[in-house]
Specification:
single chain; about 190 residues; alpha+beta; seven-stranded antiparallel β-sheet; 7 helices
């Protein structure tokens, strides 16, 4: 009996040491800091210029964190924004069940509207599943929901408002995908 207690005590001590040392796997849905996933250096590399300011903090519906970097160009301000929510945070907020629940509801809601459905497109190669809704990129990876939007100055002249809007969406999607690729490398 004493040997059993000693062995269990040793297992408990070793478990605590492994967890404290960081060798234990990270919880699949623990909270993440958006500014750790999208750093100032990442944002500046994406826009190829110094960021003029930054805004970070907690968000809700769904719960999580957000990080935005701003860039000034020719009198206008542009930005790259990341919002990240874990299933754990989402569930504890009490509105949705999980990251997948929010992702699926967003996708379904947008597909139910003829105007927004035209702008929707699935995006391969990012996380477990991703879609672009014409404005921002939604990504599901494990127990995490990420929303990325990068909006930079649109250069050129266009024959119509429709052509300009299409070029804006393509540019924003391309920048958002590039940002997401960097961000996703930091999520295990």
């Amino acid at each position: 009996m004493k040997k059993c207690v000693v062995v269990l005590g040793m297992v408990l001590v070793l478990t605590v040491l492994v967890i404290q040392s960081g060798l234990a796997p990270v919880s699949a849905a623990g909270s993440l800091d958006a500014c750790s996933l999208l750093t100032k250096a990442d944002a500046e590399a994406l826009f190829n210029q110094a960021s003029s300011s930054q805004k970070a903090g907690k968000v809700s519906a769904p719960a999580g964190s957000q990080c935005i970097y701003f860039f000034k160009k020719k009198g206008d301000t542009y930005s790259v924004k990341l919002r990240v929510s874990s299933s754990e945070e989402i569930k504890s907020e009490g509105i949705f069940k999980s990251a997948r629940d929010v992702f699926e509801r967003q996708k379904k809601t947008r597909m139910a509207n003829a105007n927004t459905a035209q702008k929707m497109r699935n995006v391969g190669g990012l996380g477990d599943e991703a879609f672009w809704n014409g404005y921002d990129l939604w990504i599901l990876k494990g127990g995490y929901l990420l929303t990325v939007v990068a909006r930079d100055q649109l250069k050129g002249s266009f024959k119509s408002r429709e052509a300009m809007d299409k070029a804006r969406a393509e540019q924003d999607l391309n920048l958002s995908q590039r940002a997401a690729s960097t961000i996703l490398l930091k999520i295990k």
